[in-house]
Amino acid sequence: MNDKIDARTQYFLACAQDLCRENLAGIARTDSYLRQPDYFSRASGHYYLILREAAGQKAVFRVRYLQAEFPELVLNYLTERELAGYPAHGVWQFHTCAWLYRNDIVDLVLKDGESDLPEAVRQAIFGSAHAARLYYLRDLPAKTHTWGVRQLGWAMRYAENAICKLLGLLKTGEYQIRTVAGLNEEDIGWLMHANENWQPLEHRLLENVDEFRHTAARLSGIIECYSKHMVSCYRDTQPLVAEEAEAPPESIRAMTEPIVMAMSDTFGNRMLSYYLHGSAARGDMRADSDIDTMAVFDHVDAEILERTRLIQRSFNKLTSSVYSVDNIKQYPKFRRYGLINGTRLHHPSGGPRVSRGWLLWPSRSLHA
Q1: Is 244 within the bounds of a domain?
Q2: pLDDT band at 347, cuts 50/70/90?
Q3: Is the same domain home to 106 and 153?
């Protein structure tokens, strides 16, 4: 245990050990960037309690008592067996975080557990790029803008710790910032300073949507550089291989043709592919549903984001996701089935499946 922890943390550790006794195998201090739904409380402590497998439901109830005693903390728990079976692309967090306490069994599990660091970096690249760009592109009402700022805060923290620092662990064996070619020399310093001083920055982003978009675009640019680096260094990264495009029905063409025309006229050859997905593609779109699309570009920069935002603003219900071809090549392997095969809707009658979605432009699939 770190002797420098404060009195409140020491009290938390003592209470956890007293409540769980021999069933407590470890306490790891993590952070909100590891679990996206918790970003709203990123100023609080985040902990994983590792419990003995034999503890059963009794230990879980005791964790609930612990949470009641420490409402400012976010507590999660895993059994030792769950920790041992943690996905390889995510187990890195338990190797890099601080531990208040852990026993010999946890030491053995972490020693034997393998991390797929390139896959973890890919996961972070795609997740943080998606969050930064999605909310840049939307003209949000005040309540939803608050949500967008919080998402951006998660993406910034995630980018620093699971891209910049994790790449350092991958390259040098040390969990520290690793820069890549193409970055502005001030960008990483800016990102670290923003994360260390998040609360005052959060207030400014809530009050000024232009500063919010500038921050999101700058983060997007940083992620783009790391994405390009991963593609150039790790040739095993899988490209997007879409199935042959199917001709969409007239109802979909009528709905999307003006959008496709606006995008293709604006971007020309810079836009490589444009997809329709979600409920509009499946055929179960409701009156209040968005028209979900995905645009793949040769490269994503601030100009691409701003021009896409203006187009999106011109079409009611349009929601765009924007990626570069390098981003798409970073799509995590464990999530690729949904990208390649898509989501399919089964009819209650057991009839044929509805198509996964539609490639709207061009008339061919995107290959490596």
Answers
A1: no
A2: very low
A3: no
